[in-house]
């Protein structure tokens, strides 16, 4: 079938023959969204639902495909409300699954989360007739294992990547040609705060370390600051263009990894054409399922695992909120707790949370979180802002407060210090006023 912008109705007719009312539908998040299929689905949702309703799992969003008005037929549920999907949360039509990202494959396979239909974007087949999942593994293999129906769009711009799962024509119930290029993520140039944070973190990352990165401009700035390192490794959920740049410069070799030696491991490619080009038929990169990329024993077995993640805000004792900003759900529990715990157990590991000290003039180092605790203070390691690094490992509450005050924006420190007395009193602790005694 040749899918063009003019024949979404034809695709919708085929979808209607396969999708049943009440089905729960999954697809790859972010860059892995199969745009031809998803747009046909939402445009013709009434005909496809046949008078019933459909469930759609929502991950990280990078397209405008999903809109609040579609809740007239679609029940949105998911673990993330980032990017364009934030509008679903604001409209009150996104039902959040507050689960650790690493739990998703198990919840799918246990049928706790239903996956009746999976829409996937795949590469053209190789010589053996195998379609690569291209840009993503994550929780998609689990959904494929449980789905009644698998619908795929072939995109010639999707790289053929090595991984634990491929598809053949026999696995696919409907195959269409893509009418859209894959989503590309182009990062803006880092600002002064991001550059300062990157320099602080770079000072801690040794030659031979294995990197795990979050998503966004800040991780890309951090990667760019590591260009003078040797034999860095990769074991991450998401990766961007900066990883391709490190590999092409000979910095990322995976040569010193204690597992998967010589091979970089990732769950999803979230970058531009540059990243796709580097990943295409690259045997030194393998995409793996979340149950491997985030497995605690796997992570603990990687020496010098530098887990670098972001946050919305961190309180003075090290509790992290990565989900809610200004009363709106914007993030997800995600994989940060898994990676931070893994890095803490790794020999020479670095559990890092990085964030600018302020946002729109407000402090992101706070006395009390404005949202949920996404990462417990017992899992806090190094907290980094442009003002420095607070190493909270093994520190008392009072010692943590002092270190967190030191990395807060100077204009907010006095107010935070006043609030610290009340905070520590509520925790049954005593505030240590002198930095030298901490």
UniProtKB/TrEMBL annotation:
<keyword id="KW-0808">Transferase</keyword>
<dbReference type="InterPro" id="IPR037171">
    <property type="entry name" value="NagB/RpiA_transferase-like"/>
</dbReference>
<dbReference type="InterPro" id="IPR026888">
    <property type="entry name" value="AcetylCoA_hyd_C"/>
</dbReference>
<dbReference type="Pfam" id="PF02550">
    <property type="entry name" value="AcetylCoA_hydro"/>
</dbReference>
<feature type="domain" description="Acetyl-CoA hydrolase/transferase N-terminal">
    <location>
        <begin position="14"/>
        <end position="172"/>
    </location>
</feature>
<dbReference type="InterPro" id="IPR003702">
    <property type="entry name" value="ActCoA_hydro_N"/>
</dbReference>
<dbReference type="InterPro" id="IPR046433">
    <property type="entry name" value="ActCoA_hydro"/>
</dbReference>
<dbReference type="InterPro" id="IPR038460">
    <property type="entry name" value="AcetylCoA_hyd_C_sf"/>
</dbReference>
<dbReference type="GO" id="GO:0016740">
    <property type="term" value="F:transferase activity"/>
</dbReference>
<dbReference type="Pfam" id="PF13336">
    <property type="entry name" value="AcetylCoA_hyd_C"/>
</dbReference>
<protein>
    <submittedName>
        <fullName>Butyrate:acetyl-CoA coenzyme A-transferase</fullName>
        <ecNumber>2.8.3.-</ecNumber>
    </submittedName>
</protein>
<comment type="similarity">
    <text>Belongs to the acetyl-CoA hydrolase/transferase family.</text>
</comment>
<feature type="domain" description="Acetyl-CoA hydrolase/transferase C-terminal">
    <location>
        <begin position="271"/>
        <end position="420"/>
    </location>
</feature>
């Amino acid at each position: 079938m040749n899918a063009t912008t003019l024949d979404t109705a034809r695709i919708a007719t085929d979808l209607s023959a396969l999708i049943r009312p009440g089905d729960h539908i999954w697809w790859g998040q972010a860059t892995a969204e199969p745009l031809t299929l998803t747009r046909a689905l939402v445009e013709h949702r009434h005909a496809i639902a046949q008078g019933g309703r459909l469930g759609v799992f929502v991950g990280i969003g990078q397209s405008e495909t999903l809109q609040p008005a579609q809740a007239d037929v679609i029940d949105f549920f998911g673990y993330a409300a980032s990017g364009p999907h934030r509008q679903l949360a604001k409209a009150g039509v996104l039902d959040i699954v507050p689960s650790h990202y690493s739990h998703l494959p198990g919840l799918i396979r246990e049928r706790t989360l239903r996956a009746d239909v999976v829409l996937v974007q795949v590469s053209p087949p190789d010589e053996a007739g195998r379609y690569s999942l291209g840009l993503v593994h994550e929780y998609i293999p689990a959904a494929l294992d449980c789905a009644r129906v698998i619908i795929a769009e072939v995109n010639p711009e999707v790289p053929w990547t090595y991984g634990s799962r491929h598809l053949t024509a026999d696995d696919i119930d409907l195959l269409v040609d893509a009418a859209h290029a894959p989503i590309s993520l182009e990062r803006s140039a880092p600002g002064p705060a991001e550059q300062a944070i990157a320099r602080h973190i770079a000072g801690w990352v040794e030659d031979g370390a294995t990197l795990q990165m979050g998503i966004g401009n800040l991780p890309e700035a951090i990667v760019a600051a590591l260009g003078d390192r040797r034999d860095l490794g990769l074991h991450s959920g998401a990766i961007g263009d900066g990883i391709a740049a490190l590999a092409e410069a000979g910095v990322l070799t995976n040569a010193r990894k204690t597992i998967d030696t010589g091979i970089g491991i990732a769950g999803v490619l979230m970058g531009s054409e540059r990243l796709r080009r580097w990943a295409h038929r690259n045997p030194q990169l393998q995409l793996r399922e979340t149950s491997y990329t985030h497995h605690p024993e796997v992570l603990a077995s990687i020496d010098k695992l530098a887990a670098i993640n972001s946050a919305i805000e961190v309180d003075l004792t090290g509790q992290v909120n990565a989900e809610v900003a200004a009363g709106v759900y914007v993030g997800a529990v995600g994989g940060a707790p898994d990676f931070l715990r893994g890095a803490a157990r790794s020999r020479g590991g670095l559990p890092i949370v990085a964030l600018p000290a302020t946002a729109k003039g407000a402090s992101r180092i706070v006395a009390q979180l404005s949202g949920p605790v996404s990462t417990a203070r017992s899992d806090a390691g190094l907290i980094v802002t442009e003002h420095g690094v607070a190493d909270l490992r093994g520190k008392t509450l009072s010692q943590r407060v002092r270190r967190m005050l030191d990395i807060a924006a100077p204009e907010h420190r006095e107010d935070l210090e006043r609030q610290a007395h009340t905070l520590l009193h509520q925790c049954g602790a005593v505030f240590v006023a002198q930095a030298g005694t901490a």
